[in-house]
Structures are given as structure tokens and as C-alpha cells.
Amino acid sequence: MRTEAAVLWETGQDWKVQEVELGAPMAGEVLVELAASGICHTDDHMVNGALPQPLPAIGGHEGAGRVVEVGPGVADLQPGDPVVLIYIPACGRCPSCADGNQNLCDRGAGRREGRALADGTLRFSAGGTGITTMCLLGTFARHTVVHESQVLRIPGDVPLVPAALVGCGVTAGLGASLNTAGIRAGDIAVVIGVGGLGAAAIQGAAIAGARYVVAVEPVVDKHATALALGATHAVATLDEARDLVQEISWNRMANAAILTTDLAEAEYIAPAMELVGKKGRVAVVAVAPSGQRSANLSLLDLTLYEKELKGALYGSRSPRAAIPAALDLYRADKLKLEEMITTRYRLADINQGFADLRAARNVRGVVVYDD
């Protein structure tokens, strides 16, 4: 079939919105018509080369839509089902899944190659040239074919546009607060960066019952959004955050800090670790450049104060558990999704969406496919 997609042909170039060819689903695969796709900093890392992927590629790894067709052997999904796409396969059979770590599924190791799990080939092409897909999804296309392990049916009463956000950013930020950082009632939490990840992490800290939630965001226009989503304080710099946390904690510092910046730069680690006190946890949710190999921090404090520095992928929880849990909170009016969306774009305007992302104009931008 033919469909429309945003294709990246070379690193550093704009997305080219064009018609592409899409093959039929094979055994274990599902054809999905997308309703919406989030625009995430991780997509931009593919553009700027921080996260290299074989090109040409269709971007996008946050999406929701409806099943159009299922391939042979797919028993749990049928045409018409509303679904959220999962950017890490959760096969349920590999050693990681067997240990309960479906967010670290071994089958996900090849997702940066962008080739189909079923047979290692490509489903998209243009002019005879094969096209890879980001995280094996490619949600910057009106239709995509993905493996059933990356498709999760959701309740029919959940609107598909906000549901797209729980495929990555919401579950990552929310789970970083609830699971990775283990925020508890009465804690002091600091969220560094108020984009999509940070907006979800703020809500997670508030849902957990944190006494104070300090948002750190240099774009002052985002402070009102941070406060509306559950932050008790909003400051522009890490120095301001340190002084504030010293004051409100009586010099004991925060229980947890969550790094949700656009990129996990090495220079953020030491200040983040200084924000937390004894037994404090720092969760790194933001993605670092693929070549980043070092970061500065006090190893003495790490030992003497038993601080922890932890990575967080998919909120440290199985996607098939994290996504329904997030949607349950949304349906109970405890998690705000629509309020996180700053701007909706048509696919034809995707380059404007990325310009707004880079200029920090949005908390979340979303591509909406419905005409």
C-alpha cells in the first residue's frame, strides 16, 4: 500500500514528507493506522546524529491508532482495536523478560537498526530504496507495520491523541518518579528540565505524595505549566535549586532528583548529585549522546552518603504494565495528558514542530493525522 511519511534522508537535514510504499504485515505483525504521534527530543537526536541510525529512516516512536490488519499467527489483536505502540519489544520469553525486566527486553537490542523483528527486512521503501524505522515503529507515517510485541490494546474510551504520549515520554517520566527514584510521601523531589519527560516526572512526584516538588527549567515561560502539573516551586537554574532545597530541607537536601533535560549532558550529573542528601537517588531519564563516556561526580559522597545514580528506561517497569497504569491514572483524573500538549501539527508541518522543539516553545508537540 501507499502511505505518507516523514523521512530523514541525511543527518542534519529536514524531514521530507513524501509518499512511501508499505508492505503487508507478515507472520506476527500488525498494520496500524496512526491517529497521532508525539514529537520527542529522541527523534531529534536521530536528526543531529547524537543517536545514529541507518538512513533513510522514518522517525517517530510514540504513537497511538487503530489496527487495520493482522498477519498470520496474531491472536490477541484484531482490526479496529485501539492501540498504543511500544518502542521496546516486550517478547515475554527472553532472559530479561523472564526476570521481570520487560523494559529491557533482549529483542530490543536491535531496535536502532530499524529492521523488522520478524525477518530482519524493511517494510517501507521509496523509489526502490528501503527505509528503516525508528525503534522499529516509524510513527511519523500515517500507517506502519510493527511486530505484535510492540502493540498494546487500550480501552476504547481513551482518546487516541493524548494516548500517544504514554508510548514513551509519559511512562518514562512518571515511572522515573514512582519506580526508579522511589519517591515516597513526604519526600522532596527535584525535576531538572520541563519538557515531556519532566512534565510527567513532576506529576509522578506529586502523585507519590512528595511534600515539595522543585522544577528546574531555564525557559521561564514553562514555569506556570510546571506549577499547574504539580510542582510546588519553579526555578531557572541548578544554583537556584540548590539554594532553595537547602532552605526547605533544613540543609538535608532532596530525597530524589530526576534528570529530564533534552540531552543528558555530562556536566549535569555532579550538580544533580549535589541536590540530594544522604541516601538520595538521582534518576537519569534523558538520553546521552552515543559517544558520551564520562561524567564528573564526587565518588566520596557516593560512598559516605550512600547516594545512588540510576538509569531509567521506560520508567523501570514493563511497558505492558506501565502503559495501562498510566492510562488508569488519566481516566481517574490524576494524570494530565491534554494539558501537556502545547501544539498540534499536521504531518506536513513536522519541520515546524521540530523547530518549536529546539526553541523550547513546547512542553509537548503532537502530530495529528485525522483530517
From TrEMBL:
A GO molecular function for this record? S-(hydroxymethyl)glutathione dehydrogenase [NAD(P)+] activity
Question: Record's family?
Answer: Belongs to the zinc-containing alcohol dehydrogenase family.
Kindly provide the name given to this protein in its UniProt entry. Answer: Putative alcohol dehydrogenase D
Q: What class of enzyme is it?
A: oxidoreductase
Q: Does the keyword Metal-binding apply?
A: yes
Q: Which domain of life is it from?
A: Bacteria
Which EC numbers characterise this protein's activity in its record? 1.1.1.1
